[in-house]
Amino acid sequence: MNDKYFIKAENYISELFHLTDPVLAATLQSVQDAGIHDIGVSPSQGKLLQLLARLCGAKKILEMGTFFGYSGIWLARALPADGQLITLEYDPQNAAFAEKNFANAGLQNKIQIRTGNALELLPQLEAEGVGPFDMIFIDADKPPYAEYFRLALHLSRPGTLIIADNVVRHVFDPATPEDKKNGVLRFNQLIAASDAVSAVILQTVGIKEPDGMAIAIVN
Ligand SMILES: C[S@@+](CC[C@H](N)C(=O)[O-])C[C@H]1O[C@@H](n2cnc3c(N)ncnc32)[C@H](O)[C@@H]1O
Fold it and tell me: For the segment 77-133, what is each residue's pLDDT rounded down to a tens digit?
């Protein structure tokens, strides 16, 4: 089993389940055109997020880390007509690209992008009383993952599904900076020990580097 095998397998799965379309392809193209390394989820992970959103009947979804909107499109497509995705993005340029991609997907009415630091935006959401969310996807910077999780709990209800991406690679990659590694380690220890959730980490492989997604349900 090597990287080539995982890439071939992911491409096989993508073709089999038709995991692309003009909107998703245009979103990925916008990342390429901007000359930025694609740090979004893979097509099969996007579909997994969509299936999980449907599985929990999500009407209100919160995402931390919009990037160019790729995962946001997968998630928002799972929402009913009156559903909403609120997605938080620190970088105004990324937010502007995402806004265009959401409009191209015809999802602008279902998605609200809030630009700023998620650590500040999350308490604001709580103060506004916009929660509880049915599903929360943590995919922003890694050092404060544990803080994001704690703040996410304030925006949750029993049964809320909390997903966090990239929780394995940084534990083992010798090139990962210490603050990232410690952030992920603190998060993993927190969800493993927390009585507030029942959780596990699913390893992920494919076109992205081997990694893992944490899946937690609020008790
Ligand atoms: C891994 S990318 C998100 C990928 C996206 N969820 C997808 O799969 O298409 C992480 C994003 O989080 C943003 N980010 C980093 N620190 C942040 C913070 N403190 N608050 C909000 N967003 C942040 C980055 O600018 C980047 O766009």
Answer: 999 999 999 999 999 999 999 999 999 999 999 999 999 999 999 999 999 999 999
Q: Which domains are seen in the chain, by residue range?
A: 3-218 (3.40.50.150)
Residue having the nearest C-alpha atom to atom 19 of ligand 1: 117
Percent of the chain exceeding pLDDT 70 equals 99
E-strand stretches of 17-145: 60-64, 84-89, 111-115, 135-138
Specify the pTM.
0.97
Q: Can you tell me the mean pLDDT for 134-138? A: 98
Structure tokens, 66: 């919009």
- Under 8 Å CB-to-CB from 97, ≥6 apart: which residues? 30, 31, 34, 68, 69
Which of 29, 31, 39, 87 should be mutated for ligand 1, with most atoms under 8 A from CB?
A: 39
